[in-house]
């Protein structure tokens, strides 16, 4: 007798489980969480704080806010940021000041810890939303963040 | 007479070795198990570690205390927030920093969300290990909601690095509270589904009940912790015995199961989901106002001495031990990771069982290999 009740109970538990999957099978469109990723690029928006890559925003006069204080370079655990700097006369104040020549960012070494952006005193670097970083050659992942010919925004002091 | 003896000998099985891993789906990473097998009966299991060793403890000696935090993301990546919290608590205790209540409450909420996310993933993978592929998708569906919460507030989905010594990197996102409440309401309807789908399933019960038994005495002597120890009836929840952050303000039950088999450990984790939800519900409406971060020096120097702090991750007790000589780097950093101790009990649990039972036992140990190797 217990032989048959075992079979019956076994089938019952299987049907209970299948009722769940059956429910989702019939309502599959309502609960779908998958995205049609490469096709939805136009509408895909990442969250504001999403850590894609480090970027340096420039304004319309091709000016940035990086004073070359190198705090980000010291804060970085992996040597991702490399600042090549120089000294020069600041055309607004007339003082001999440190200025960046190249802000080199090795994306291939970056662990997205966010310490550089956290320590930046002038908010010169920010998180960018781009996450499509697959390239054929890893040298393409080494970027110079300050645009050619750009200079420090007047009035920015660290 | 002699003829029949030779006949018997020729049918006698011999012990032999077989490699499980390092690239085996059931080992959940690069863990190599050297199995000594007689037929299909396991005689001995020897874990071979080191395939994903990154010398995190040594790298900590090079890094400043702010930089150490992001390395701990990469140990137990499924409870990265709790790992970060452990390091931050150690540094803050050493500096005798007064942490605002707001930080403590947010840390606890995110920590419990991390635990739920980890258990969701484990539940999906557990089902898959014993042959039920459906659970994998359902577990990931619910984990996805938590990952979205993390992505909005912390900026990353897995390796968040949201804690810094002294508080949190940013304040919570304005949508955080609403999203967490939505998730709690959503997930409360899903746990009964988990039970219907897998817990009650006759095949699953036959595969797990009475398999991989670990008695309470053995659990204590192997030093296992977390859900594995609690499945053997050993009460060891760090959140209960040494409450940290805001855990002393909430009431929750420590989940204990007496049987010590695979099914008991499974049940502990499923019931822990309810406890985590209850902790989140108690805290989410009363996040106190205040600062999200205390100012620390740009270069943190710990006073000379030894500091230890333990927390309860999704896998068990994580201990962080810092020896400082008063400089900006630790002299020695040691992590007591839960996975390593839990793995040590595997041989004891698996001997005498079949290979299929070993997979089921390993699934409930919830091994994360980077946590074991560090």
Automatic annotation (TrEMBL), chain A:
<keyword id="KW-0472">Membrane</keyword>
<keyword id="KW-0408">Iron</keyword>
<dbReference type="GO" id="GO:0016020">
    <property type="term" value="C:membrane"/>
</dbReference>
<feature type="domain" description="4Fe-4S ferredoxin-type">
    <location>
        <begin position="57"/>
        <end position="86"/>
    </location>
</feature>
<keyword id="KW-0830">Ubiquinone</keyword>
<keyword id="KW-0520">NAD</keyword>
<dbReference type="GO" id="GO:0016651">
    <property type="term" value="F:oxidoreductase activity, acting on NAD(P)H"/>
</dbReference>
<dbReference type="InterPro" id="IPR010226">
    <property type="entry name" value="NADH_quinone_OxRdtase_chainI"/>
</dbReference>
<protein>
    <submittedName>
        <fullName>4Fe-4S dicluster protein</fullName>
    </submittedName>
</protein>
<feature type="domain" description="4Fe-4S ferredoxin-type">
    <location>
        <begin position="101"/>
        <end position="130"/>
    </location>
</feature>
<keyword id="KW-0874">Quinone</keyword>
<dbReference type="Pfam" id="PF12838">
    <property type="entry name" value="Fer4_7"/>
</dbReference>
<keyword id="KW-0479">Metal-binding</keyword>
<keyword id="KW-0411">Iron-sulfur</keyword>
<keyword id="KW-1278">Translocase</keyword>
<dbReference type="GO" id="GO:0048038">
    <property type="term" value="F:quinone binding"/>
</dbReference>
<dbReference type="GO" id="GO:0046872">
    <property type="term" value="F:metal ion binding"/>
</dbReference>
<dbReference type="InterPro" id="IPR017900">
    <property type="entry name" value="4Fe4S_Fe_S_CS"/>
</dbReference>
<keyword id="KW-0004">4Fe-4S</keyword>
<keyword id="KW-1003">Cell membrane</keyword>
<dbReference type="InterPro" id="IPR017896">
    <property type="entry name" value="4Fe4S_Fe-S-bd"/>
</dbReference>
<keyword id="KW-0677">Repeat</keyword>
TrEMBL record, chain B:
<keyword id="KW-0874">Quinone</keyword>
<protein>
    <recommendedName>
        <fullName>NADH-quinone oxidoreductase subunit D</fullName>
        <ecNumber>7.1.1.-</ecNumber>
    </recommendedName>
</protein>
<keyword id="KW-1278">Translocase</keyword>
<keyword id="KW-0813">Transport</keyword>
<keyword id="KW-1003">Cell membrane</keyword>
<dbReference type="GO" id="GO:0005886">
    <property type="term" value="C:plasma membrane"/>
</dbReference>
<dbReference type="GO" id="GO:0050136">
    <property type="term" value="F:NADH dehydrogenase (quinone) (non-electrogenic) activity"/>
</dbReference>
<comment type="similarity">
    <text>Belongs to the complex I 49 kDa subunit family.</text>
</comment>
<feature type="domain" description="NADH-quinone oxidoreductase subunit D">
    <location>
        <begin position="129"/>
        <end position="298"/>
    </location>
</feature>
<comment type="subunit">
    <text>NDH-1 is composed of 14 different subunits. Subunits NuoB, C, D, E, F, and G constitute the peripheral sector of the complex.</text>
</comment>
<dbReference type="InterPro" id="IPR029014">
    <property type="entry name" value="NiFe-Hase_large"/>
</dbReference>
<dbReference type="GO" id="GO:0048038">
    <property type="term" value="F:quinone binding"/>
</dbReference>
<dbReference type="GO" id="GO:0051287">
    <property type="term" value="F:NAD binding"/>
</dbReference>
<comment type="function">
    <text>NDH-1 shuttles electrons from NADH, via FMN and iron-sulfur (Fe-S) centers, to quinones in the respiratory chain. The immediate electron acceptor for the enzyme in this species is believed to be a menaquinone. Couples the redox reaction to proton translocation (for every two electrons transferred, four hydrogen ions are translocated across the cytoplasmic membrane), and thus conserves the redox energy in a proton gradient.</text>
</comment>
<keyword id="KW-0472">Membrane</keyword>
<feature type="domain" description="NADH-quinone oxidoreductase subunit D">
    <location>
        <begin position="299"/>
        <end position="374"/>
    </location>
</feature>
<keyword id="KW-0520">NAD</keyword>
<dbReference type="InterPro" id="IPR001135">
    <property type="entry name" value="NADH_Q_OxRdtase_suD"/>
</dbReference>
<dbReference type="InterPro" id="IPR022885">
    <property type="entry name" value="NDH1_su_D/H"/>
</dbReference>
<dbReference type="Pfam" id="PF00346">
    <property type="entry name" value="Complex1_49kDa"/>
</dbReference>
């Amino acid at each position: 007798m217990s032989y048959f009740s075992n079979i019956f109970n076994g089938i019952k538990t299987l049907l209970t489980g299948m009722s769940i999957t059956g429910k989702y099978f019939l309502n599959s469109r309502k609960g779908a969480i998958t995205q049609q990723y490469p096709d939805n690029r136009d509408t895909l928006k990442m969250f504001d704080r999403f850590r894609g890559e480090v970027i340096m925003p420039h304004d319309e006069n091709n000016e940035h806010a990086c004073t070359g204080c190198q705090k980000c370079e010291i804060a970085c655990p992996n040597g991702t940021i490399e600042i090549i700097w120089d000294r020069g006369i600041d055309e607004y104040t007339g003082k001999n000041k440190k200025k960046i020549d190249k802000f080199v960012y090795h994306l291939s070494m970056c662990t997205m810890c966010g310490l550089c952006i956290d320590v930046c005193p002038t908010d010169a670097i920010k998180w960018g939303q781009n996450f499509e970083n697959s390239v054929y050659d890893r040298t393409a992942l080494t970027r110079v963040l300050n645009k050619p010919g750009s200079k420090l925004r007047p009035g920015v002091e660290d | 007479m002699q003829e029949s003896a030779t006949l018997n000998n020729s049918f006698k099985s011999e012990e032999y070795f077989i490699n499980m891993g390092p690239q085996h789906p059931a080992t959940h990473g690069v863990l190599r198990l050297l199995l000594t097998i007689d037929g299909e009966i396991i005689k001995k299991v020897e874990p071979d570690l080191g395939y994903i060793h990154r010398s995190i403890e040594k790298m900590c000696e090079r890094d400043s205390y702010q930089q150490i935090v992001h390395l701990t993301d990469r140990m137990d990546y499924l409870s990265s927030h709790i790992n970060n919290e452990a390091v931050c608590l150690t540094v803050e205790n050493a500096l005798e920093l007064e942490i605002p209540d707001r930080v403590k409450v947010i840390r606890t909420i995110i920590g419990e969300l991390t635990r739920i996310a980890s258990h969701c993933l484990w539940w999906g993978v557990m089902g898959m290990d014993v042959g039920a592929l459906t659970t994998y998708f359902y577990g990931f569906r619910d984990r996805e909601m938590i990952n979205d919460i993390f992505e909005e507030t912390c900026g990353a989905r897995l390796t968040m690095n949201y804690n810094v010594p002294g508080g949190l990197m940013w304040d919570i996102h304005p949508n955080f509270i609403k999203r967490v409440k939505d998730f709690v309401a959503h997930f409360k309807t899903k746990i009964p589904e988990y039970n219907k789908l897998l817990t009650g399933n006759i095949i699953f019960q036959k595969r797990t009940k009475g398999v991989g038994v670990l008695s309470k005495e053995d659990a204590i002597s192997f030093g296992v912790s977390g859900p594995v120890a609690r499945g053997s009836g050993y009460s060891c929840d760090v959140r209960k015995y040494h409450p940290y952050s805001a855990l002393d303000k909430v009431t929750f039950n420590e989940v204990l199961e007496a049987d010590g088999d695979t099914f008991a450990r499974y049940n502990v984790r499923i019931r822990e989901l309810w406890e985590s939800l209850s902790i989140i519900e108690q805290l989410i409406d009363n996040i106190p106002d205040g600062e999200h971060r205390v100012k620390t020096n740009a270069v943190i120097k710990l006073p000379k001495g030894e500091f230890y702090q333990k927390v309860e991750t999704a896998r068990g007790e994580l201990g962080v031990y810092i020896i400082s000589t008063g400089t900006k780097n630790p002299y020695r950093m040691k992590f007591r990771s839960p996975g390593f101790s839990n793995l040590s009990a595997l041989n004891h649990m698996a001997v005498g069982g079949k290979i299929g039972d070993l997979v089921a036992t390993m699934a409930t140990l919830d091994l994360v290999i980077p946590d074991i190797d560090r």
